[in-house]
Design brief:
alpha/beta, Rossmann fold, 3 domains, 6-stranded parallel beta sheet, 6-stranded mixed beta sheet, HTH_LacI, transcription regulation, DNA binding, LacI family DNA-binding transcriptional regulator
Length: 340
């Protein structure tokens, strides 16, 4: 991130308003012994100066709280991230708060609110951020760590991910090794960095083997169950349907299983499926899901520890860290049917 601008102080606001520091402090604390006109003027200047109340000193506030923020409803993927963050937080004596922002705007007031609530750092998971949002956090001097960001703002931010390209490559190579050539990819948002890397791994494996990617074999949506049902239906209804599908997430893979079931297809006898994440879902499907293990708990732990280092003013060795993925073979993949 660029160097932080100088933080406005109570004295700065008081001088602009032509009142005492004590008066500004009364306005901040909601005291009633301030005239409405003075209160309105001070509040306006606090906003103009982007004033952020200083965080409580560590000896007063303890080790503090780190917020883990999601853009969408929690699922099996989210649970693994949270578990890792909570485990690392317990080791460090730090509390964890989980929130869902949805589509709400992230502004300077949002950043100030996090600091006022005593947050020491923010971990944003699978979020889509504008350049202004990390800048708002930077002005508030609140460290930000991203996990699997859907996009990377132009400003330099610290992020934690996994080897998505290698995972996509391994998933597709596994299916190719079983004799499949008609392999489709049903993934997440086309603009998401993690999805692009998985798709590129898939394409690289297919190209290296000389296996064509047929029209309609690549689908982009979201990483959710219903998207898997719809994406799976779309590729399975093609004139030359795939014999195997690589799904961008375990949730999508389960949705594809349902689309296959609706069409009377057996897994893996008629259709092989590989997921991505290795959440608890992968172990309880029928048959159990072959998938790419993404070290989600370790990613949550790494994000928490990195956030605390940044909160202490330490420098990090790298602004982007990728943890290794690995193929986990279970019962949802098998050699290509001989009749095809």
């Amino acid at each position: 991130m660029p160097p932080s601008p100088r933080r406005a102080t109570l004295a700065t606001v008081a001088a602009s308003a032509g009142v005492s520091v004590a008066t500004v402090s009364k306005v901040l604390n909601g005291r009633s012994d301030v005239s409405p006109a003075t209160r309105s003027l001070v509040q306006s200047l606090l906003q103009q100066h982007d004033y952020v109340a200083p965080a409580p000193r560590r000896e007063q506030a303890g080790l503090g709280i780190v917020e883990v923020q999601f853009d969408t409803d929690l699922n099996a993927y989210s649970t693994e991230i949270i578990q890792g963050a909570v485990e690392a937080g317990a080791e460090a004596g730090v509390g964890i708060v989980v929130s869902i922002r949805g589509g709400q705007a992230r502004t300077t007031a949002w950043a100030r609110g996090l600091v006022a609530a005593g947050r020491r750092a923010l971990i944003a998971v699978t979020s889509e951020l504008t350049a202004g949002q990390p800048a708002a956090l930077n002005r508030a001097r609140l460290p930000l760590v991203l996990i699997d960001p859907l996009n990377l703002p132009r400003t330099r931010v610290t992020s934690i991910g996994s080897t998505n390209f290698a995972g996509g490559l391994a998933a597709t190579q596994h299916l190719l090794s079983l004799g499949h050539r008609r392999i489709a990819y049903v993934g997440g948002p086309a603009t998401a960095a993690c999805n692009q890397a998985r798709l590129h791994g898939y394409r690289a494996a297919m190209e290296a083997e000389g296996a064509p990617v047929l029209p309609g074999y690549v689908r982009s949506s979201h990483f959710h169950y219903q998207d898997g049902v719809e994406g799976g239906a779309a590729v399975l209804d093609l004139p030359h349907a795939p014999t195997a599908i690589f799904a961008g997430s375990d949730e999508m893979a389960v949705g594809i299983m349902e689309a296959a079931r609706e069409r009377g297809l057996r897994i893996p006898e008629d259709l092989s499926i590989v997921g991505f994440d290795d959440t608890q879902i992968a172990k309880v499907t029928s048959p159990p899901l072959t998938t790419i293990r993404q070290p989600l708990r370790e990613m949550g732990q790494a994000a928490l520890r990195t956030a605390l280092r940044l909160a202490e003013g330490e420098r990090v060795d790298s602004h982007h860290v990728e943890l290794a993925t690995e193929l986990v073979v279970r019962g949802s993949t098998a050699p290509v049917p001989h009749r095809l």
